[in-house]
Amino acid sequence: MRLRPIEWTGRALRRAGTEMLRRGGIKGIWFDVGAHHGEFTLSYANRNPGLTIYAFEPNLRAAVSLMGRAPNFVVIPIAIAETDGHAKFNINSMDAASSLMQICEEAREAWIGGTSLSVESTVYVPTIRLDTFLNLFKIPFVNLLKIDAQGMDLAVIRSAGDRLRDIAKITLEVDVSQKPLYRGAPSKSEVLDFLNSAGFTLIATERQSYGQEENLTFERS
Fold this sequence. Notes:
By secondary structure, this protein is an alpha/beta fold. Helices cover 25% and strands 29% of the residues. The chain has a single domain (5-84, 128-220), classed as Rossmann fold. The protein has seven helices and ten strands.
């Protein structure tokens, strides 16, 4: 959740970006799942014509604001989920908190900044698995998968199926509060166990949202 955007995975991305720029620019393919307004990847698309970024944003209002911003920034107004089809999407008054998952009211009351979170409407949005998308578009390899899907981050990773082996680096968000804000959101230990068993190693951790969330970056071992 981008309650304080400056805290995001920006430092990890900037470090990688600075190093790659020294080598002549970033190339390859990135996926930005939960792109919102492109805060963390759009600038990389603008500065690196050899990089292609697929930005997934199911909130149509936010997705439309991203379209046409860069020729190599491909906006996909679809949610990544574990099934292909459609699902209910909860649009929050703080649009960055919109999610396929429902907010736990008890957790919201204890959440720092939780008073600004309320569901304004619920709409149906199309959903697609990562492996389905990769196969349909014949994408052989993803250099970076960035996820900010409001409790759905591990589900996004699981949706890659066997194609998870074709992803080099993953950065995602986990809730580390006593009670998860989103019902059914995985714990940090669940995320670590899954990705470690899939051959990834944790290389960076950043706290955000007043210590209620962490951004974790993994690389394939």
